[in-house]
Amino acid sequence: MLRLTGCILKSIGLAFFLLIAACRNESDTAWQDASRSAMTPPTAISRSLHEPRIFLTPQQARQLSSRDGWPAMVSSLLEVPAAMAYGEYRWQDVLHSSPGGSGAVMVRVDLDRQIISVFRGGEEIGTAVILHGVDEYPTPRGSFPVIAMMRDHVSATYDSAPMPFTLRLTNDGVSIHGSDVQAGLGTHGCIGIPSEFAKRLFAVIHVGDVVHIV
């Protein structure tokens, strides 16, 4: 049984995408092993703005864009050499001169792999382990524009649970927001992300930017 704590509950680890594993010169077996290693407790969270990047060939970009929810043409990805643990994230936005940056922001959430990817101008600028809805409260799949942004939101439904840097996706309250991302937790349908990552995402996204949940 997963433990429900406000709107903040369930997580497993993840390997990135098998297609991306090939780009990183890793075998499928190695990435499956890395997926299991993500069940270990979290290590230090990466806050580096200088993470290594993988620059895709046009053929790789076309292959990736044919997958569900990926941008039309991805130029580069953050290099993540092993599966991230709970609470970990990567963020690198030095390719843009200001938080407003250039290019629209697009977010992809992979529920099966429990990972979020943030793209701007065809470049992945952030990725993190997520929490998502438990079986009784599944996170909806589909494409959702951000309809509201609330920096210091507190839940009116779940015992005043803090939901910092909320990005509202649906009229019935499904949102992306900062959470305490830990093993064994899930949500009532929201997407929980590390609070520091949520702060960075909040700074670059705008109402109307699209989140693809697959």
Topology, please?
Elements: H1 18-23, H2 28-37, E1 53-55, H3 58-65, E2 76-78, E3 89-91, E4 105-110, E5 115-120, E6 123-129, E7 142-145, E8 148-154, E9 162-168, E10 175-179, E11 191-194, H4 195-204, E12 210-213
What does the model show?
The structure is a single chain. By secondary structure, the chain is of the alpha+beta class. It has one domain: L,D-transpeptidase catalytic domain-like (Beta Barrel). Helix content is 16%, strand content 28%. It contains four helices and twelve strands, in the order ααβαββββββββββαβ. The strands form three sheets. It has a six-stranded mixed beta sheet with strand order 3-6-5-4-12-7, covered by helices on one side.
List keywords for this structure.
214 residues, alpha+beta, L,D-transpeptidase catalytic domain-like, 6-stranded mixed beta sheet, 4-stranded mixed beta sheet, 4 helices, 28% strand, disordered N terminus
Q: Which range does the strand content fall in?
A: 25-35%
What would you call the shape? globular
Structural class category: alpha+beta
**Structural Rg:** 16 Å
Order of strands, widest sheet: 3-6-5-4-12-7
Overall mean pLDDT stands at: 75
- What is the CATH top level name? Mainly Beta
Low-confidence stretches: 1-49
Counting DSSP H or I runs of 4 or more residues, the number of helices is: 4
SSE series: HHEHEEEEEEEEEEHE
Strand count:
12
In brief:
This protein is of the alpha+beta class and 214 residues long. The chain has a single domain, classed as L,D-transpeptidase catalytic domain-like, CATH 2.40.440. It is built from 4 helices and 12 strands; from the N terminus they run ααβαββββββββββαβ.
